[in-house]
Amino acid sequence: MTLHVELQMPDRSLWSGEAGMVIAKTTDGDIGIQTGHSPVFGILAPGSIVRIREVPGDDGPGDAVRAAVRDGFLSVTNDRVSILASVAQLSTEVNAEAARSNLDAAAADAGSGAEESPEYRYARAQLLAAGEQA
Questions:
Q1: Residue-wise pLDDT tens digits, 41-62
Q2: Same-domain check for residues 47 and 9
Q3: How far is 118 from 70, CA to CA, in rounded Å?
Q4: Are 79 and 121 contained in the same domain?
């Protein structure tokens, strides 16, 4: 059995397909979703990564999709996972140089001791989704 997963922004669909597992960070903590998961609604943690895992095969499951998410919601019901993000970017679309520049600018704007801004968290998530060090 598989999950049907949709990753959407208000203006477009980023990814839709079948998966073996979805891993996301919500404001209540990390969640892993597989088939048969009970219904749940969660708020995605700002500047987090959503990982959509392939259906396990002989070599084990791998990431089919990684996406940096600025913020949004996650809903699970009847083996369907809907992720609605205000802003998100697939790892394959991330421009690491631009994300690093955005991260540096957001860090400079924040100064020392301030809480991380949403812009800082999202830029960091973009770098992590692309496999870069943040």
A1: 999 999 999 999 987 664 555 6
A2: yes
A3: 7
A4: no
| 38 falls within a domain | yes
DSSP 37-52: PPPEEEEEPTTEEEEE
Q: Are residues 54 and 83 in the same domain?
A: yes
pLDDT digits (tens, 9 = 90+) for 60-112: 556 779 999 999 999 999 999 999 999 999 999 999 999 999 999 888 876 65
Please report, for residues 8, 37, 78, 111, the alpha-carbon distance to residue 94 in angstroms, rounded to integers and kept in the order given: 17, 31, 32, 26
DSSP 54: P
What pTM does this model have?
0.87
- Cα torsion 55, 85, 26, 51 to 10°: value is 20
Cα angle 13-19-25, degrees, rounded to a multiple of 5 = 75
- Of the two residues 60 and 117, the one the predictor is more confident about is 117
* Domain encompassing residue 98: 92-129
Question: 116 and 67: one domain?
Answer: no
